[in-house]
Design brief:
The complex is a heterodimer of chains A (350) and B (383).
Chain A: H1 3-19, H2 22-29, H3 35-43, H4 62-74, H5 81-93, E1 103-105, E2 112-114, E3 119-128, E4 135-142, E5 145-152, E6 157-159, E7 169-179, E8 181-184, H6 190-221, E9 223-224, E10 227-228, H7 233-262, H8 268-291, H9 302-314, H10 319-333, H11 335-347
Parallel strand pairs in A: 1-4
Antiparallel strand pairs in A: 2-3, 3-7, 4-5, 5-8, 6-7, 9-10
Chain B: H1 13-29, H2 35-40, H3 47-55, H4 74-86, H5 92-108, H6 111-122, E1 128-131, E2 147-151, E3 154-162, E4 172-178, E5 190-196, E6 203-209, E7 215-228, E8 232-233, H7 239-252, H8 255-258, H9 261-271, H10 277-305, H11 311-336, H12 347-362, H13 369-379
Parallel strand pairs in B: 1-4
Antiparallel strand pairs in B: 2-3, 3-7, 4-5, 5-8, 6-7
Helix pairs in contact in B: 1-4, 5-6, 5-7, 7-11, 9-10, 9-11, 9-12, 10-11, 11-12, 11-13
The chains are: A alpha+beta (350), B alpha+beta (383).
Chain lengths: 350, 383
């Protein structure tokens, strides 16, 4: 890891560790917006790591974004940071200016339509933080092509809803009366889903490492049958297996962000979401099992991370969706191209 | 906790150039290699194939030139290995020597041992076996009892080693013997030796056929077998420390996730270009893992290149890689419900038939899953 990213990692870890307290997470669960956390993130230049400086960002690239999003996941930061990063990137890709404020993305592409003049209409469910967002960014068909749109909050109504992490996932309606800024997209409709899957894989990597660390600590503290439960081989075996799965998910996520920095991560981001989803299945299972009943209480903090892992696991495509895409791609290329395609992904990045 | 850390690695341009060379070589050399042999991959012994690799400087390629090596990087070696394994090349003859016995001699051997033995390995002429397990010592390796008793000019060996792959063909075994049996010397009383399998009296190699029908491993009996002092590796009592280092080499390589790769290819072929949803999901999951484990394996090679000691990462790699390999036949079964025929089956059936059976050994060699998880748990600070 470059020295700069290491310093960045220390900074963001400290920031989230200080502010993402259990009290803050509980209040966010109850619907309170963590204004101080958001302001601090923005003031530290973490909300638009990808944008060039002349556009109000820090021009740090996707690998730096990984460090930030990983830390946000590690502390279950209840703010639309991944969404703001993603929205900023989409706008910048389309050559549009990125406004200040809370941004989010509309994951659904098919349900929204744009007229030639920028009139926007349609409904979308599961829009992260829509009611809190100053702007929504998304992709929709316009004049036979695909366009990026930037919709200010006056352009839509949001009906509050939540995922099981109790993060906002609102229903959005564009009633067709507002005109929004648009620009032709230079990529296809899958791109939003792909990059969405990728940012989730970074948050998941952070949350996965967190629940492993907390579980290891718990197994050292909790005593049964006269010794810390971590001294029992069966616990050790379970956590060793879990740690290996998590290490793989972290590697896959890092690899995707590296590929994004150097090109299009269409293969790597798919792999990352598959590995993150699989690891989430194993890790939430074993970590809860190891904690016993205390981990099932609201009082214990484990659920802030596991509920997010379950939510993120499904968002922007479950592992089956991405596995199917990978499988079709591999099958279409045939067995003889299999190995050379796998190695070419890495070589292309050299 | 000690974080498990895998940093994404980068391959230098010379490694990618080497990849093309290796592919050219394999296109020709693999043409006559049967599907049976491909399925056996790095456990298939073929001295002719190994000699061809030796001619190209592809055995012991990171070793100093004065011992026959090519002084190339660990990352170049990594690329060579993954290309050989992905193709199912029969590299068993030199695999153990290249992977662990040579590096052991290089690190702990005498100058005389290096000069007399390493060049033969690099030419693909000298094969090695590993004499660790004994009838009553498997996972509990430190309990080995085969004794090396000091006599004038050397040692007399009495006892036996078991599960010794290739002992009937190997030129040498690197064997772990007990040089002190006092209770406090359980770990400190062990010493490694080079056993010349072709020129030592008092050695009897008896075949043990495995369940696939292959003769791969053996039991090796020693009865007053004399080993000269010059064939001791390292100091008396250093055997345990050396063996632990050796096992890290044994566990970290790309063979830990690529043994079943010939079957992965067959599965992709069997599904065809327009797979069902179920087939596509199965293949996608498989490839997502394979591509990720490749990055992890590469990362471990990068750590070796940087002079680090990635023992825990190697154990993680083995846990994941073996878990992956072992799921491939089950997945092929789920997707195609095949019951392979042994005599007139397709390439898919032949490969599936062998790997379905051999599969159970993949998590045993190099330390069982449970032992490996114990090492990871230690790395996590649990023991």
């Amino acid at each position: 890891m470059s020295e700069l990213r290491e310093i960045l990692g220390e900074t963001v870890t400290r920031l989230f560790a200080d502010l993402c307290t259990k009290d803050l997470l509980e209040k966010a669960d109850a619907g309170e917006w963590p204004q101080e956390l958001w302001t601090t993130v923005v003031e530290n230049g973490l909300s638009q790591p990808l944008l060039p400086e002349e556009k109000g960002g820090v021009g740090a690239g996707w690998q730096a974004a990984y460090v930030i999003l990983h830390a946000a996941g590690r502390y279950a930061a209840p703010i639309p940071l991944a969404e703001t990063v993603l929205a900023g990137w989409l706008l910048d890709q389309a050559g549009m200016d990125v406004p200040e404020g809370v941004l989010s993305v509309v994951p659904d592409v098919a349900g929204i339509s744009l007229s030639t003049s920028g009139g926007i209409a349609g409904d979308a469910l599961n829009v992260p933080w829509a009611a809190r967002a100053d702007y929504l960014v998304g992709l929709a068909r316009q004049d036979g092509g695909l366009a990026v749109y930037l919709a200010p909050k006056e352009a839509f109504t949001a009906t509050a809803d939540q995922n099981i992490a109790r993060d906002p996932r609102d229903a959005v309606r564009f009633d067709g009366t507002a005109q929004v800024a648009t620009a032709p997209a230079s990529f296809n409709a899958e791109t939003l889903r792909l990059y969405g899957a990728m940012v989730r894989s970074a948050q998941m990597a952070g949350a996965l490492e967190r629940i492993l660390e907390d579980t290891l600590e718990y197994t050292g503290d909790r005593t049964q049958f006269g010794k810390p439960i971590g001294k029992f081989q069966v616990i050790q075996q379970n956590l060793a297996m879990t740690a290996a799965e998590i290490a793989a998910a972290v590697m896959a996520a890092q690899n995707a962000f590296r590929a994004a920095e150097q090109g299009t991560p269409d293969f790597e981001a798919a792999c990352a979401k598959v590995l993150a989803g699989d690891a989430a299945g194993v890790a939430t299972d074993i970590c809860h099992e190891t904690h016993g009943a205390i981990g099932f209480t609201y009082e214990h903090h484990l659920h802030f991370f596991t509920r997010r892992l379950w939510s993120w696991r499904g968002e922007f495509g479950a592992e089956t969706e991405w596995a199917e895409r990978l499988g079709r791609r591999v099958a279409a290329r045939g067995p003889d191209a299999l190995w050379s395609d796998i190695t070419a992904r890495q070589s292309a990045n050299v | 906790m000690t974080a498990l850390h895998f940093e994404p690695g980068e391959l230098p341009p010379e490694a990618e150039e080497l990849r093309l060379e290796v592919r050219d070589f394999l296109a020709e050399a693999m043409a006559t290699v049967s599907v049976d042999l491909r399925a056996r991959n790095w456990t298939a012994w073929n001295s002719e194939f190994s000699r061809k690799l030796g001619e190209r400087g592809w055995i012991g390629m990171t070793w100093p030139k004065k011992y026959g090596g090519s002084e190339r990087s660990f990352l170049e070696r990594y690329v060579l290995l993954e290309e050989l394994l992905a193709a199912g090349a029969p590299v068993g003859f030199h695999w153990i020597a290249d992977r662990q016995s040579g590096p052991l001699i290089l690190r702990f051997g005498t100058e005389e041992q290096r000069k007399s033995i390493l060049p033969g390995i690099t030419r693909g002429e000298t094969a090695f076996g590993i004499g660790m397990s004994e009838p009553n010592s498997g996972s509990d390796l430190a309990s080995v009892r085969t004794k090396a008793t000091k006599v004038d000019g050397g040692y007399l060996i009495n006892g036996s080693k078991i599960w010794t792959s290739g002992a009937h063909m190997a030129n040498y075994l690197v064997a772990l013997f007990r040089t002190s049996s006092s209770d406090e010397d359980r770990h400190n009383g062990l010493t490694q030796f080079l056993v010349d399998m072709k020129n030592t009296n008092g050695i009897d190699v008896r075949p043990i056929r495995n369940m696939t029908g292959d003769h791969d491993f053996n039991q090796v009996f020693f009865e007053d077998a004399f080993i000269p002092e010059t064939m001791r590796v390292g100091n008396e009592g250093d055997g345990w420390k050396q063996v632990t280092t050796e096992l890290a080499f044994e566990r970290s390589g790309p063979e830990r996730y690529l043994s079943s790769f010939p079957l992965v290819k067959e599965v992709v072929g069997e599904a065809g270009q327009d797979p069902s949803e179920r087939e596509a999901i199965g293949i996608g999951r498989m490839i997502a893992r394979a591509a990720t484990f490749r990055e992890m394996s590469l990362s471990v090679s990068g750590m070796l290149e940087a002079g680090k000691n990635p023992n825990i990462e190697a154990a993680v790699m083995k846990e994941l890689g073996v878990g992956f390999e072992q799921k491939i036949p089950g997945m092929a079964h789920d997707l195609f419900g095949a019951s392979p025929r042994l005599s007139h089956g397709s390439d898919f059936e032949t490969t599936m038939a062998y790997i379905t059976q051999a599969n159970v050994s993949f998590s045993l060699r190099g330390g069982t899953r449970e032992i490996v998880r114990g090492i990871i748990a230690r790395g996590l600070g649990m023991r």
